[in-house]
């Protein structure tokens, strides 16, 4: 099976591809401890929390296209 990567998917992930973006919300969604800390300190509003939940549901990965990916392609 060939994996295809959608780099910079934002809010439009592609089905059956590895979807990635480099937003801070995606970074937090993929860093449970940092996400929990931000919620405990009330640093996130409801819109941000809802977006992070959506990111988790859609399995969006954090990736910076200028650096090596931190996940297996």
Describe this structure in words.
With 73 residues, this protein is of the alpha/beta class. It has a domain at 23-64. Helix content is 37%, strand content 12%. The protein has helices at 24-29, 32-40, 46-57, and strands spanning 5-7, 18-21, 61-62. It has a 3-stranded parallel beta sheet, with no helix packed on it.
Q: Which SSEs are present, and which pair or pack?
A:
Blueprint: E1 5-7, E2 18-21, H1 24-29, H2 32-40, H3 46-57, E3 61-62
Parallel strand pairs: 1-2, 2-3
Characteristic terms for this protein:
12% strand, three-stranded parallel beta sheet
According to DSSP, the number of beta strands is 3
Strand order of the largest sheet: 1-2-3
* Number of discrete helical segments: 3
Query: Structural class given helices, strands, pairing?
Result: alpha/beta
The coarse overall form would be globular
Kindly, what is the distance between the CA atoms of the first and last residues, rounded to a whole number of angstroms? Answer: 11 Å
Percent strand equals: 5-15%
Q: Determine Rg (CA atoms, Å).
A: 13 Å
Which range best describes the helical content: under 10%, 10-25%, 25-40%, 40-55%, 55-70% or over 70%? 25-40%
Mean of residue pLDDT values: 88
- Major sheet description: 3 strands, parallel
Taking pLDDT < 50 over at least 5 consecutive residues as the criterion, the unreliable ranges are: none
One letter per element, helices H and strands E, the order comes to EEHHHE
